[in-house]
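Render this sequence as a predicted structure.
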Amino acid sequence: MSDPISPITSNGDTTGTQARLPVQTLNQDDFLKLLVAQMTSQDPLNPKTDMEMIPQMVQFSTLEQSKAMQTDIASLRSEQEVLHANSLLGRTVEIQDGPQTKVTGRVSAVLMEEGMPKLVVNGNRYALGQVLKITVPNAY
């Protein structure tokens, strides 16, 4: 049976193994590797009880819930940006287009580029973060 934990080399010697950069946080795969290593290397005459494994399983479950929550929050943030961009259609905005340059114009369209909404003002595309001022069109 092979070792479930891959070796980490720090001296640049990569014969038979791949060099790996140090990881700041543990992910799900690392946790599972540690759990398998712990279970396979325990004393068979004195194995860990279920009560000793429960805190680790709780941590694993918490990690999964945290990852799911991060994904949900990122999705909500993306949807909120799209809704905000769409709400600017037809409005006049002032855009920061450089350190000393500001552009004023009406938002004529919203385009999606690399998953991010871009406002089309005077034929040019701008990110939402570049908006400095929003004015409501005059109602006649």
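Summary. The mean pLDDT is 79. The first helix runs from residue 28 to 40.
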